[in-house]
UniProtKB/TrEMBL annotation:
It comes from Litoreibacter ponti. Gene3D superfamilies: SMc04008-like (1.10.3340.10). Pfam families: DUF1244. InterPro entries: SMc04008-like_domain, SMc04008-like_sf. This is SMc04008-like domain-containing protein. Residues 27-92 form the SMc04008-like domain.
Length: 99
C-alpha cells in the first residue's frame, strides 16, 4: 500500500471513531479510561498537539468540541453522570503510576 492511501485509510478510520464516540453519549470518559487508558479528552488533546506540531493553534475547548460534537460544557450538562465510588477507585488503581 502506498503511503498516501495508508494516510487516507487511517484518517477515515479516525473519523469513524470520532463519529462513533459522538453517538455513544452513554459511554462515560471514566469508563473509557478504566478500560482503554484514553478518553475523548485524550483524543482532543492529541488532536491539539498534532495541530501545534504543524504550527496550527487550536484551543483546548475547540479541540474538545471536535470529539464531543458540541461544546464541552453542553455535553457535560446533557450526558455526563457522576462516577460511582467503584469507578473512581478502579480509575485510581489503573492510573496510579500515571501521576
Amino acid at each position: 500500500m502506498d503511503p498516501q492511501t495508508q494516510i487516507e485509510l487511517e484518517a477515515a478510520a479516525f473519523r469513524t471513531l470520532k463519529a462513533h464516540l459522538q453517538k455513544r453519549t452513554d459511554v462515560q470518559n471514566i469508563d473509557m479510561m478504566n478500560l482503554t487508558g484514553f478518553c475523548r479528552n485524550c483524543l482532543s488533546r492529541w488532536y491539539q498537539e498534532a495541530a501545534a506540531e504543524r504550527g496550527i493553534e487550536i484551543g483546548k475547548m475547540e479541540a474538545r468540541e471536535e470529539f464531543y460534537g458540541m461544546p464541552f460544557d453542553e455535553w457535560k450538562a446533557k450526558y455526563q453522570t457522576d462516577a460511582s465510588a467503584e469507578k473512581q477507585a478502579a480509575f485510581e488503581v489503573a492510573h496510579k503510576d500515571a501521576t
